[in-house]
Amino acid sequence: MQNKIAILFIFFTFIFQPGFSEDGYQLWLRYNQIDDESLLNSYKAAISGYHLEGNSRTNEVIKKELSAALSGLFGENVSELSSTSANGLVIIGTPANSSFISANIDKTSLNALGEEGYLIQSIKKGKNKQIVIAANKDIGCLYGTFHFIKLLQTHQNIDDLDIQTAPKVNIRILNHWDNLDRTVERGYAGFSIWDWHRLPDYIDPRYIDYARANASIGINGTVLTNVNANALVLTPSYLEKVKVLADLFRPYGLKVYLTARFSAPIEIGGLETADPLKPDVQNWWNEKVKEIYNYVPDFGGFLVKANSEGQPGPQNYDRTHVDGANMLADALKPFNGIVMWRAFVYSDEEPVDRAKQAYNEFKPYDGNFRDNVMVQVKNGAIDFQPREPFHPLFGAMPQTPLMMEFQITQEYLGQATNLAYLSSMYKECLDSDTYAKGKGSTVAKVVDGSLDNHKLSGIAGVSNIGNDRNWTGHTFGQSNWYAFGRLTWNHELSSEQIADEWIRMTFSNDEDVVQPIKDMMLASHEIVVKYMTPLGLHHMMGGDHHYGPAPWIKDMPRADWTSVYYHKADSNGIGFDRTETGSNAIEQYFPEVRKMFGSVDLCPDKYLLWFHHLPWDYKMRSGNSLWDELCYEYYKGADSVGWMQDQWHSVKGKIDQERYDRVDMLLTIQQKEAIWWRNSCLLYFQTFSNKPIPKSLEKPEMDLNYYMNLSFPYAPGIRPRW
After folding, report:
1. Among this protein's residues, is 405 annotated catalytic?
2. With a threshold of 0.85, does the pTM exceed it?
């Protein structure tokens, strides 16, 4: 089996070769020949070949990748040279495997970059000028190689390079909500890419391409299975399959993690209980973890969803989250594995605002978790809404490493029919100031561990990947996968810089293509928020499938699954009062943030109705009444999709026809859906405000009953019933 994997591994690394159809499969790793003749000639003059020492599997990856990239971009074969003396050579290696690097690179600078960081430098040796990609470990060399290839793809100047970079976060991981039957919860790009039925003997080439794409943006971990876990993945028949994926991913620095179903000792272990304080349960997990490491020696650890939305957990046995997480952490500790324990918990039995429940439940446990436990916290306190203020837990648990959880899949952001570039949303959260230790205590500093000196740090993203040819359903969904990876490596990057890179690598370096697409991307998230949930509204999507607007939903098994629970529209006004006169959720923030959110005069408009219930006649900063402002926001959002279409039409003929047509069709769908959102919400809220839509705005063609009677029983991504 090992030899078979090695052969397949070498073969599959050629899958992204120029000449394949422009259907989006190549993602941002397109190595088409550079069409700027002057630039191409300058690159050829600067690069005569490459040299790499060492025979690790990661080094084999580097050779294949660099050879494919240089040969494709240059339009001619670029070879590996055996000597380091040639002019224009790209030399890759570590001090341990390259005497040239050991002699010419400052070891202090290199040591500061850790195990995954790298440097790229131009070096002159006599008459020769060479480019060095150096790191302390082979994986750093691979990351550096992808960075260097990106410089060429984006037409950067490589005459005098001096780049040093290391990841700000240790664990940069995708969470796949993929089920063993290949359905994907909240997935909008086809079925799961993991073909469990045909593994371990049939190895899809897509697995290697997946690993390459992740390595190219610095992602170093993947949780293969859904947080609503199936215990079968922990059985030997599935661990054999997991082993194959882990072996394939290892040269790319990609560790495999699994979700652990808390009731597994009962379901597959034959025990009568899963009580974490029972010795036989602890022993079962100890033995199970040993078994997993026999299959996967570098197994990363467990992601756990416990006592949330019907999932089993320690509270079933009157135990705490600490009891459950520490039991698993103790089992993993001898193998350097970690536990990522999700803080997404809420109970319909709790009388308090759902936005407060995770804080109330986890804050008292600060400092009680083992040092290999990370509490994984969503960016906002409700559930991946189009816009949320940052979660109050960030900054509130200084003795516990908190792991950010972002959603890349667009569950509440138009799914795979809407273009929404999410880097802006990620940055809005990461750059938010918690004031936990005074001004400048940003969420990013909490998450990267620098605020409280945590060695363990991480950011997770719920994957938007499926088996569609273009991976993410919508071509621009790829930009969110890309942006997520780039920000996990360096959260100080700007959304504009990341968009610029992605466009140039994915479509073209032509400024007449780059600028209109970039303008569209940078505006897209705000546009979607405006036609879905402006001014701090939230949780107004359709039930179960979460597709489309349904602000009228009120009959659900639990109140906090309804829309009316959140917008609280009545004849007096709209919005959720989370101030001292309401649920007092603002008390969970530090005083400076509490003061801002708690004051109607200081609260930013974008969060206004998240924290305040205001009269329909309330005068906004713009001078408009709240009702009129709400109308203008909804219409502005819907109308702006038309502007996005114009931006896209401006690049017609300047990119390939296939991808142009697909995005164009999806923008047409998005325009219809934006109008649907606008009309549904305003007609519904109008029944409470009893105010007319401003005369300057066109009136909805259909009445409220029409929208309320729309039905979508087979919308994609519906959560399975347990």
Report:
1. no
2. yes
